Amino acid sequence: MTVVRPFRAVRYDPARVDLSQVIVPPYDVIAPDERDAYYERDPHNAIRFELTRDIADEATTDYSDIARTLEAWLAEGVLVRDEAPALYAMRQRFRAPSGERLARTGFFASLGLADYSERVVLPHERTLAGPKADRLKLLRAARANLSSVFLLYEDRTQLLAADLERAFDAEKGERLGEARDDAGVEYELAAVRGEAGQRIAAFLADRQVVIADGHHRYETALAYRDEMRAQAGHTAPLPSDFTLAYFANAYAPGSLLLPIHRVIREGPAPDDARWAERLPGWRMQRVPIPDEGAIPELLDRHLAPLSGRAAFAADDASGTLRIFVRDAPLGGELVVRILESEVIAPVFGLDPAAIRAGAVDFPKSAARAAQAVRTGDGRVALYLNPLAPDDVFRVTGAGEVMPQKSTFFYPKVPSGLVFRTHAEPDA
Asked: Which residues are within 8 A (CB) of 63 and not within 5 positions of it... i.e. 6 or more apart?
């Protein structure tokens, strides 16, 4: 079902650049005020393939400078094209929010594009027209996939792990480079060829994959594929029938699905009486907060054990963490849906329209949520347990999408380790 092919990557020559200085986070997590720093970091930084230096220029740019830059760096040897096609294993070593050191190993490949209706590549969220129009301008100009879609596959018994790890073997592996980003995540890149690559492709051929990050990029690639087919007047295989994708096993130890918390921005913080009145059927436990830094540990101790039930913690900076739980099993429900309909609406009077309008913020760490209510940027922080991979595959397998800001897939996949151009076929 999922078509995975090796490709001849275009890569930075590690002899010409320091990979740590040229990789960048995904374009949609780079803040406007961070762009200039990446541009200044290195004259060959991959930010030049992703974003204009000034956000105000996005509306008028045609991104033609990207195609010229790509050609120039190839001519100069800053970028090189591999002689033979391969899959490209990427190992990320990082520290989890819990402090534990973890590693995730996945791979880059050329992915055959399939419409969502084919039920091969499954989305987990909805997209917006604006970002897709911008990415389509870039793709038309560059005729290259300069950042990847991030896909999850299901491999509960770690069948692919050995082939991927073998790529980094000191004697038999084909290591291609290493880097470290600003968050301390360490990267290693290696080629996967021959029978190992064939086994990986055969494994994925029988499975669906879920988009973790990159919905706008994927849908843009579909639109571009259709444009190129129309121009060619046929549907014979074209380079635009594929896109660059990174694949990770959702069930590997280093694949983290972290929660995205909620911060109610305005209105009075509820007292115990209001919580009890508006949440019948929920039990509440009060836990003292000795200091802000203790909150992650308190969540691990009191909220994490409630995974599998409807549960959340509320923090209004009063020095008390309120833990709420319903005893009934979750079944097929998602806590993020319950929180919106049964907590945020009745307790705070906020409907979905108010949430979309900005009445609720969505911090990606408990520390940021806690800070928001202590600096006046929010009134109440609502902390959640993470969803499980089973939740993601169950919802997307049923043809549904996840609620807004349901989960944060970590670590992110950087841009700059491999590129895929449409100048010639993958093989």
From this structure: 137, 138, 140, 141, 142
